[in-house]
Amino acid sequence: MNLTKSISLLFLILITSIATSQDVKFEAKVSKKKLGVNERLRIDFEMNKDGDNFVPPSFDGFTVVGGPNTSLMNSYVNGKKTYQKTYSYFLAPNKKGKLTIKQAKIEIEGEIYKTFPITVTVTNAVDRPNAPPGAADIADDNIHLIAEVSKTNPYLNEPVTVVYKLYVSREVGIDGNWREKQTPRYNDFWSQNIEIKGLNVQKTKYKGEDYRYVVLRKTVLYPQKSGKLKIEPLVLDVNVEVPSGRTDIFGRQLMTKVPKTVTAGSRTLNVKPLPEQGKPADYKGAVGNFSFSVTTSKTQLDATESLQATVEVSGKGNMNLFELPELTTPSSLEVYEPEHKENIRTTLSGMQGRVSDTYTIVPQYRGKYPLPPISFSYFDLATETYKRITSDEIIIDVLKGPTAGSNSTTNDTVDSPKQTVTTSGSFAFIKTTSNWVTISEEKFFKSNLFWALLLIPFLCIPIAIILRKKQDARNADVKGMKRRKADKLAKKYLSEAKKNLGQKETFYESLERALHNYLKAKLHIETSDFNKEKIQGLLIDLKVESAIVSDFISILESCELARYTPITQVTMENDYEKAAKTISSIDKQMR
């Protein structure tokens, strides 16, 4: 029994000692973070429990001109005792620049505690040495805007997240009347803002001190070219509330507002090009992790009925920044232009969802028609290798209908029931008189009409041969077909943008896609090569007027800025009209 009580007592003492040790505080505080070379700096090493064997730092870069001074304070608040012991030093800087005061050590209750290093900035001599810091100086030292970048050396088309955080120390506050003085611009990036619902204030440590912070902006970027790409800074105008040094009649600290401009600074990403080794010949720019499929709504049907064949890519990556492979079909199947669909959502980890092209196919003849396998290639970021997915062959079985090369009437009658001739016991009346009509006495044989009808088929043969050769040449021109398709897509997206007038983000995404597909058609460049300088140079080389080139570039910039700024209905209508007019002008001048 006594043994049990002894163990319980020892356990209680152990828990109490652990809790007590967790409450120990030992920290360093300086009178200012920025001072002139002719000023003095005070540094205090504070602890809330008495300790032994205090070891100060070496104070490299400073001369100790006073201290150590020791102060001790005991107080009781609501019956609770508080203890504070302080070692103070006065330092004179020996040089200008950033000087770091290293860690101090002390032993408290058998444990060694250390302070965090502190860095101060020493500037040129000041006119009023050791004057109390002004409100602007306090604001500078206690508020910071930081841009946190998830990756600084991504691959081309690899997602990068930029999170902008505003850090505010406990010494100051900010009011709600802050505004963006400069919005970050992401040249050579595809960008998407992530919606933030409310500003959630959170606590954290910043450079070893207690701070609060809010997340102001989250953006996902996809670099569209390799090399060093610059992210322009976010700049804010804020009103900082700092202590005025005065109190009201109740002893509460009075605050004063100081206007301040804070910037996150520009960031540079070193974007790596995709490796050439192992790159498939049919690679079209997909980067991420995807699945690929080709499906049909049915595999058995009759001639002149329709079916839908869907080419679909799903997964996670640069979903709307690559082209889907085209479906190939036998010439006996009539195929219509595909309907393009996108179901994509963007989170902090990047884009994910599915994109598809749905083709409508109408067979004309009976028989079995294979849809050959097609392949989709992408660059896998996890393994840093290229991967290829190939679809299975699909057989379309057309059950009923005419056979290619035969008379359709014959085939139709094969499966139709034969007609039965019925007899009747009644006789039909026989007409005994006739009404003769005189016809022309001109003979058809060897007439002009006779010779025309005889010669026209022979004249059509060379015309048909010429037209067939032109069609074959057109089909063989793969690049030309690709340009024509992109041209059609540009017109399609312009019409889609017109339908989305009034919906800011959807409208400008559709307008931007239309401009990109137009550039593919006219300048023969891919999405990964898009940058304003290259586009401007190519258009000028094609003898397009500088004013029109400037209009086109300004439309692209409007599409980028529209994601971050409020836009009116009138502005959207003007941008649409300007895009249509500019594309038309470029077409006329390039011809």
CATH topology of the largest domain: Immunoglobulin-like
What number of structural domains do the residues give? 4
Number of distinct helices: 9
CATH class of the largest domain: Mainly Beta
Mean pLDDT: 80
| Low-pLDDT segments, ≥5 res | 13-21, 407-429
Helix content: 25-40%
Number of strands: 31
Query: Termini separation (Å)?
Result: 105 Å
Gross morphology is: elongated
Strand fraction band? 35-45%
The profile of the biggest β sheet is:
5 strands, antiparallel
The radius of gyration is: 40 Å
- Secondary-structure-based class equals alpha+beta
In CATH, the architecture of the largest domain is Sandwich
What does this structure look like?
The structure is a single chain. With 591 residues, the chain is α+β, with helices and mostly antiparallel strands. The chain has four domains: 20-131, Immunoglobulin-like; 137-271, Immunoglobulin-like (Sandwich), CATH 2.60.40; 288-398, Immunoglobulin-like, CATH 2.60.40; 478-590, Up-down Bundle (Four Helix Bundle (Hemerythrin (Met), subunit A)). Helices cover 26% and strands 37% of the residues. The chain has helices at residues 2-22, 135-142, 408-414, 448-476, 478-499, 504-523, 532-541, 546-561, 569-590, and strands at residues 26-30, 34-36, 41-47, 52-55, 62-77, 80-93, 97-101, 105-108, 111-114, 118-123, 143-149, 160-169, 173-174, 179-182, 189-194, 202-206, 209-223, 227-231, 235-247, 253-263, 267-271, 288-296, 300-301, 307-317, 333-335, 339-347, 350-363, 367-371, 375-380, 385-390, 394-398. β26 and β27 (350-363) form a beta hairpin. The protein starts with a helix and ends with a helix.
